[in-house]
């Protein structure tokens, strides 16, 4: 898939055993929600207890700049299909509580590490949408009015299923483009990748230290 290598990696990071996905399945590619979230089901069966997710997203908060990092405090689900539709998996309740889908202790740990390393991080609400089109200026403004700070085409389904499985989750977004402001800004996939690649080392530094300390 474009922008995603699609490899599964096992190894050690920060002295901990890890399983890493280099790329993921996206709903906009035609996969079902069961397909999109199948890796999280596998992680649960393998004994994974903590999930770190990252994404490239469009910033709607006027305080954000391209290349900023945003720790995800909460999300708004705009996907047309819910990943828990159908027969309930016995990994969690039929109606899971979602008041803390993104673990507070992990978010606080990220803040502590970012301060120690002098890395600027923002916090905000991530809006998950189907894609594959980037948002119109009106859509950006609508999501902002609804309480969103950044918008993207992934993450929410995976986090819902992980949370349903009792897996603690930490999410972080790289702000790769901006929208909904007075001056329209065109965005391309190439520009998104360029901004993501530039900010990735800072995000990786935070995550590596989080894994070491958690």
Automatic annotation (TrEMBL):
MF (Gene Ontology): purine-nucleoside phosphorylase activity
Keyword list, A-Z: Glycosyltransferase, Transferase
Keyword Ribonucleoprotein: no
Single biological process term from Gene Ontology: nucleoside metabolic process
Annotated InterPro entries: Nucleoside_phosphorylase_d (IPR000845), Nucleoside_phosphorylase_sf (IPR035994), Purine_phosphorylase (IPR011268)
Residue ranges constituting the Nucleoside phosphorylase domain according to the UniProt record: 3-212
Pathway: Purine metabolism; purine nucleoside salvage
Kinase among keywords: no
EC number: 2.4.2.1
A Pfam family hit: PNP_UDP_1
Gene3D superfamilies reported in the protein's UniProt record: Nucleoside phosphorylase domain (3.40.50.1580)
Family listed: Belongs to the PNP/MTAP phosphorylase family.
Xref: NCBIfam families: PNPH-PUNA-XAPA, PRK08202.1
Name of the protein this chain belongs to: purine-nucleoside phosphorylase
Annotated source species: Segatella baroniae F0067
């Amino acid at each position: 898939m474009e922008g995603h290598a699609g490899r599964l990696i096992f190894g050690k990071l920060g002295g901990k055993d890890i399983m890493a996905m280099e790329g993921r399945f996206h709903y906009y590619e035609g996969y079902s929600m069961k397909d999109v979230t199948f890796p999280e089901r596998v992680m649960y069966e393998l004994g994974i207890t903590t999930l770190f997710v990252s994404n490239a997203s469009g910033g709607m908060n006027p305080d954000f700049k391209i290349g900023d990092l945003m720790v995800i405090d909460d999300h708004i689900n705009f996907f047309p299909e819910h990943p828990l539709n159908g027969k309930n998996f016995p990994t969690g309740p039929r109606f899971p509580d979602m008041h803390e889908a993104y673990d507070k202790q992990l978010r606080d740990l990220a803040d502590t590490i970012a301060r120690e390393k002098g890395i600027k991080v923002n916090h905000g609400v991530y809006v998950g949408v189907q894609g594959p089109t980037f948002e119109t200026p009106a859509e950006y403004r609508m999501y902002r009015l609804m309480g969103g700070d950044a918008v993207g085409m992934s993450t929410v389904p995976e986090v819902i299923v992980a949370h349903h499985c009792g897996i603690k989750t930490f999410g972080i977004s790289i702000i790769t483009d901006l929208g909904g402001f007075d001056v329209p800004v065109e965005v391309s996939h190439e520009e998104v990748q360029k901004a993501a690649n530039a900010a990735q080392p800072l995000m990786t530094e935070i995550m590596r230290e989080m894994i070491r300390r958690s």
